[in-house]
Design brief:
181 residues; alpha+beta
């Protein structure tokens, strides 16, 4: 393969070999070698995990683990992931708790806390089975059915796996233990 590189100089076109008398072929080989090395280096850098490149795993930051607590109903244990709210942090600071909770509307258990928690109430629209909410500033509510609601609550957390929650809570009042995980 023959390459002809032209260099413009004062309205005159000359080849590389004319600029470097006696070194034209050598200069072309060197230039070809440099181009080849650049191409190989570029291909290597494009490979996933190649040295000198940043992968998502290498640049990912370690996220702190979400705070959790345990809810025990009879012999059943449920893990609750706490929300990132001041109310949830204060609830966790109160643990362990044992609360008698009454049934309301066949979809929730509620009980009064000894101390008020900070509120940041909003209307969730849909309440999901396993939601742990605060109604007002002192009423702890565990929902065991999914339904629509126009009421306002402060989110405290959510049962990680609510399967079997409705059966464990039953239809009447029950005592629920809340503890640190």
């Amino acid at each position: 393969m023959t390459m002809n590189l032209d260099v413009l100089h004062k309205d005159r076109s000359r080849t590389v070999s004319e600029h470097l008398p006696g070194h034209g072929l050598s200069a072309m080989r060197t230039l070809g070698l440099l181009c080849g090395l650049l191409m190989l280096t570029g291909c290597d850098a494009a490979q996933p995990g190649a040295s000198g490149t940043h992968t998502a795993a290498a640049t990912a930051t370690v996220q702190p683990e979400e705070p959790r607590m345990q809810m025990t109903v009879g012999e059943r244990h449920f893990t609750i992931t706490l929300a990132d709210t001041e109310a949830a942090r204060e609830l966790a600071a109160m643990l362990p708790l044992s609360i008698n909770m009454a049934d309301l509307n066949g979809n929730e258990k509620h009980g009064e806390l000894l101390k008020s928690l900070p509120t940041n109430a909003s209307r969730p629209g849909t309440i999901r089975s396993g939601d742990l909410m605060l109604y007002g500033s002192r009423t702890l509510v565990v929902f065991y059915l999914t339904f629509s609601s126009s009421y306002s609550y402060t989110r405290l957390g959510r049962v990680d796996d609510p399967s079997g929650l409705a059966q464990a809570l039953g239809s009447g009042g029950t005592r629920i233990e809340f503890s640190k995980e």
